[in-house]
Amino acid sequence: MLNIHDINVFYGNVQVIHNLSMKIEKGETVALLGSNGAGKTTTLRTISGLIGPKSGAIFYNDKRLDKVPPSAIISHGISHVPEDRRLFPQMTVEENLLMGAFEKSLWGKRKEKLEEVYEMFPRLHERKMQHGGTLSGGEQQMVAIGRALMSSPEMLMLDEPSLGLAPKIVESIFVLLQRLNKEGITILLVEQNVNVALEISDYAYVMETGKIVLEGKAENLMDNVYVKQAYLGL
User: Fold this and answer.
1) What is the pLDDT of residue 233?
2) How many C-beta atoms lie closer than 10 Å to residue 54's C-beta?
3) Mean pLDDT, all residues of the chain
4) Intra-chain end-to-end CA distance of the chain, in Å
5) For residue 168, what is the DSSP state?
6) Which residue in 11, 87, 140, 147 has its CB near the most CB atoms, within 10 A?
7) How much is the pTM?
8) Distance CA 199, CA 31 (A)
9) Which one, of 193, 220, 195, 216, lies nearest residue 206 by Cα?
10) Which residues contact 2 (CB under 8 A, 6 or more apart)?
11) Residues 169-214: pLDDT tens digits?
């Protein structure tokens, strides 16, 4: 489904991604792990077309993705939930959600998709006329995920969905991700809660200073000595 081949990414003259290669099969949940500054967010932004790799290539369903403008990425079936949620604070919950179906080809299913999002997040239905900037952190994350689902993505990328949220909200989000995966959505998850991320993932990559230093089945990485010491505090 997604194949990344030896990409190198720079911010100005500073290289932040070094010869990175990854592969995600359809229907998988894949975790991308690493400490702050490892390059995880940059990797997602590169897949989304927000940053162009200086070399290497990204293929999605056998189509070259790194030559596609960011505005067209969503039409390829990829949605991105950014780390900072990026809501429009002066727009209502419903208006924020509708932005996820902004592309004209999605207009016909907006009502249907809204109903699906409200079924997943009943609290958003209760607050649909409330401004996004007045919501709690957990509610804002619900809107960000709901907005991404409005385009009926084949693959959902999430950047630190648990960041700054109460444990109960975090648990509900990971339960939702498992549900979405069972319904057929492929998931690429950047998450510092390594234990939970590995529990719900099929495969995982570990990044350090812009490089993949370890990869394998999630269940095997949970028993890996290095992962235990560096990320699980064991």
Assistant:
1) 65
2) 11
3) 92
4) 34
5) H
6) 147
7) 0.92
8) 10
9) 216
10) 22, 23, 24, 47, 58, 59, 60, 155, 186, 188
11) 899 999 999 999 999 999 999 998 898 999 999 999 999 999 999 9
